[in-house]
Design goal:
globular; 7 helices; 74% helix; mainly alpha
Length: 146
C-alpha cells in the first residue's frame, strides 16, 4: 500500500507545482513518470534492506535461487525508474516495467494467498493486490506508451 501512496503523493505534488506557474512539472504524463520513478525506487530499496528476506519468501518455489531473482528484479526496478525520466529511454523503460509487473505478479499472488508479511505487515489480500497491480500497469502504460 505504501508504494501506491508514494505514487499518489508524488504525482499530486508534481501536478500542484504546475498550478504554481511551473508548467513543465505540471504536465500530467511527466508527473506520472516522476511519480512512478519514485515508487519503483522505493520498492527497489526493499530488495537489499531489512525486507529482503520477506521478498525472497515471496518467490514461487518453481524458481531456483530466489535471492538472485530478488536482486535481479530490484536492479530492473532501478533501471526502469531511471529510464522513465529520460525521453531516449522512456519507451524501453515502460515496456520493461510492464513486463516486470506481469512477471512478478505470481509472487504477489503467493504472498497474498499465504498471508506473508513484508516488514512485519501482512500483505494486502489478493483482490487488493490485483487491483494495485492493475493500477501500476495502467500507470506505466500511460506514462510511456501513450
Amino acid at each position: 500500500m505504501v508504494p501506491f501512496l508514494v505514487l499518489l503523493v508524488v504525482f499530486a505534488l508534481c501536478r500542484a507545482s504546475g498550478w504554481m506557474g511551473v508548467a513543465f512539472f505540471g504536465e500530467w504524463q511527466h508527473c506520472l513518470r516522476v511519480a512512478l520513478a519514485a515508487m519503483f525506487l522505493l520498492t527497489a530499496s526493499a530488495h537489499w534492506g531489512a525486507k529482503r528476506a520477506d521478498l525472497v519468501r515471496m518467490v514461487p518455489p518453481v524458481f531456483s535461487r530466489p535471492e538472485l531473482w530478488v536482486t535481479l528484479t530490484g536492479v530492473a526496478e532501478i533501471a526502469g525508474a531511471l529510464g522513465l525520466l529520460f525521453s531516449a529511454t522512456l519507451k524501453a523503460a515502460s515496456i520493461g516495467l510492464t513486463l516486470l509487473l506481469v512477471a512478478i505478479f505470481p509472487a504477489n499472488v503467493r504472498a497474498a494467498r499465504e498471508h506473508l508479511t513484508i516488514g512485519g505487515r501482512e500483505v494486502p489480500g489478493l483482490a487488493v493486490r490485483a487491483l494495485l497491480q492493475a493500477v501500476f500497469l495502467g500507470a506505466v502504460i500511460a506514462a510511456g506508451w501513450c
